[in-house]
Amino acid sequence: MAVLSKYAIIVSGGAGTRMESSLPKQFHQLNGLPILMHSIHAFHKNDKSIKIVVVINQAHHQQWKDLCKKYRFEVPYQLVSGGENRFSSVKNGLDFIFKQKTSLANVLIGVHDGVRPLINQDVISNAYQTAEIKGSAIPAVKSKDSIRITNANGESKAINRDSVLIIQTPQVFKANLLREAYKQPFEESFTDDASVIEKSGYPIHTIEGDIRNIKITYPMDIDIATILLKSLL
């Protein structure tokens, strides 16, 4: 039986303008460490055989390296430059992996937002295990709020919230599916990797996510994450 290879692409190419700070949001501190380091630690803790690829905007490489020295961050990873959007940043990470592997037959690749530092260990494990069997695994949680959709005229209509899923990361796929899907040209509808895979014609399998797995976007999210982090320690 062939040995399974697992990768994690952690995407942190954004500038974080909604954080009201010139400091990229992935470098803001959470419980004494930059947010991005928490995300990387989570995958290394889950399985030390996971090969981690960190995608960061080229302009922020030196800043990240300085932070690694400051915090004596020693988790092994490969650093790759980000692109002009999330799609191209993930593609850069994939291209790096594909150059390392002569065969993708037994390779799983997870893609995770670098600013989701509270990812649960069970979710990571379940995502890779499910993707190995079904080809894809997308963490999702049901909406706890009422949901309405709007049309081009600004009119809104209520929909059943039980039919709405809030999508999270890591999204894990068999590598050959990602290779084919990312041959497509970029579209505005590609807001995550599942949407890219789906457009290429492959089915998407969801798994149970975790409501604590929030994406740090606004300054108050760090306060929320600080409280939630205690429940994961």
Keywords:
single chain; Spore Coat Polysaccharide Biosynthesis Protein SpsA, Chain A; two-stranded antiparallel ribbon; 12 strands
What does this 3D model show about the protein?
- With 233 residues, the protein is of the alpha/beta class.
- It has one domain (5-138, 167-229): Spore Coat Polysaccharide Biosynthesis Protein SpsA, Chain A.
- Helix content is 33%, strand content 23%.
- It contains seven helices and twelve strands.
- The protein has helices spanning 35-46, 61-70, 86-100, 121-134, 175-181, 193-199, 219-229, and strands at 5-12, 29-30, 33-34, 51-56, 78-81, 107-113, 136-142, 147-150, 156-159, 165-167, 171-174, 206-208.
- The strands form three sheets. Strands 1, 4, 5, 6, 7, 10, 11 and 12 form an eight-stranded mixed β-sheet that branches. It has a two-stranded antiparallel ribbon with strand order 2-3.
- The mean pLDDT is 93.
Provide a short characterization of the protein structure.
By secondary structure, this protein is an alpha/beta fold. It is 33% helix and 23% strand.
Which geometry do the CA atoms define?
Answer: globular
Level-2 CATH architecture: Alpha-Beta Complex
Helix content: 25-40%
Give me the CATH superfamily: Spore Coat Polysaccharide Biosynthesis Protein SpsA, Chain A
Whole-angstrom Rg: 18 Å
Strand fraction equals 15-25%
Q: What's the helix count?
A: 7
CATH level 1 class label: Alpha Beta
Determine the oligomeric state from the structure.
single chain
For the residues shown, what is the average pLDDT? 93
